[in-house]
Amino acid sequence: MLTGVVFVALAIQLFKHAGLITGGTTGLTFILFYLSDIPYGLILFILNVPFYIFAYKVFGKEFTLKTFACVASLALITEWMPHWVSFGNLNPIFAGLMGGLMAGVGILMLIRHKASLAGVTVLALYLQKTKGWRAGNIQLIIDLAILAVGAAIVSWQQLIISIIGAFALNLVITSNHKTGRYMGM
């Protein structure tokens, strides 16, 4: 699971460096981070608290404990990552596309190990489980709504690149995760 968390943390570092946003709880975290002096990891952890409760009720103790561990790890790693990795020259389009792909692969790794990064992923997995709706499609719709809110704080160029990143992320999940295909969710 740590590999999945590190993939997502590196994707977040790409997005941060390029001034991009993304969808889901991570996107809300970016919006609040850009508007405040509060550390990114702290915002991420706090925003996910209601989703731990929901996850416990819907998916049980094991999933929730793994999810809690993943979110706590991500919150810490995103704070440490700038000390480990920096980008002298980073093309924003590359950052959006590669960040989206890496985040999608990281989230997929977690889902396959009966874990998540809480937030929108928990809701999307729940709706896939109960309604049969594709988790990636649900997540994309919510992501686009959050990106629309983010349009107020980033340039239109950054917004377009952020949307490309969200599509890349959700394409990975939609094309690779189907209920019952794996031992995970």
UniProtKB/TrEMBL annotation:
GO CC aspect terms: plasma membrane
Keyword Cell membrane: yes
PANTHER family xrefs: UPF0750 MEMBRANE PROTEIN YITT (PTHR33545:SF5), UPF0750 MEMBRANE PROTEIN YITT-RELATED (PTHR33545)
Protein's name in the database: YitT family protein
Subcellular localization, as worded in the UniProt entry: Cell membrane
InterPro entries: UPF0750_membrane, YitT
UniProt keywords, alphabetically: Cell membrane, Membrane, Transmembrane, Transmembrane helix
Keyword Nucleus attributed: no
Pfam families: YitT_membrane
Mode of membrane association: Multi-pass membrane protein
Residue spans crossing the bilayer: 39-56, 63-81, 93-111, 132-153, 159-176
